[in-house]
Amino acid sequence: xxxxxxxxxxxxxxxxxxxxxxxxxxxxxxxxxxxxxxxxxxxxxxxxxxxxxxxxxxxxxxxxxxxxxxxxxxxxxxxxxxxxxxxxxxxxxxxxxxxxxxxxxxxxxxxxxxxxxxxxxxxxxxxxxxxxxxxxxxxxxxxxxxxxxxxxxxxxxxxxxxxxxxxxxxxxxxxxxxxxxxxxxxxxxxxxxxxxxxxxxxxxxxxxxxxxxxxxxxxxxxxxxxxxxxxxxxxxxxxxxxxxxxxxxxxxxxxxxxxxxxxxxxxx
Length: 268
Fold this sequence. Notes:
The mean pLDDT is 94. By secondary structure, the chain is an alpha/beta fold. It has a single domain, classed as Carbon-nitrogen hydrolase (Nitrilase/N-carbamoyl-D-aminoacid amidohydrolase, 4-Layer Sandwich). It is built from eight helices and twelve strands. The chain has a six-stranded mixed β-sheet. A six-stranded mixed β-sheet has the order 6-7-8-9-10-11, covered by helices on one side. The chain has helices spanning 23-39, 59-65, 72-84, 124-128, 159-167, 184-198, 243-252, 255-258, and strands at 6-12, 44-46, 87-96, 99-107, 113-118, 140-143, 146-150, 172-176, 201-205, 220-222, 228-231, 236-242.
């Protein structure tokens, strides 16, 4: 383990505009944002939940926009990642047979897909009437020497999910989300608690909207000490995730080695 390894993360918090759900428009915006992220020294760009299409679209429109994991959208994002030598995390509705999944790709800086994750915890009928649930809880890939894990939005609200990642060695947990008002508590309180109690970095990346009941923004990168590394004031933020910070936080607060799973029963 090299304590000097650090990944510079760029988080894109785009404004949601009704009617904007279109792959070509997303790819044009992503090209510009990737250039800005790479220009700022980032090695990883994280975008929100369902960033390629938007999230609250309904069953019919989501199915219409769905593509397979190796479809033209994936090929186009791969070209952008390779062109800017930048790893990219993006979300889209993944078609697989008769099912549609709320999926995320982590595309490496060489343009190859390093990991794919399907949202495992579906939120109310908003998700359950549109998507099938994924069954692989811990999906990981190497990003700049750090072990990165992928989950989506509601998944992070289950402590078991984040702890499973911590126990599997995840150092940077990437969480594309579509959090709406009035649930700002999740971003402001729950995300720092999750990072602190499981001793890892969390990159939590949301849409924003001016609508009173729209997306609340509040994208952030939280360190394993529970403190934010950055927050957005516009639509792009930069933050550094380093292994030295992980080592120091885990020495100061050794939750993981101090666990007593033999006492937890079904909770493990």
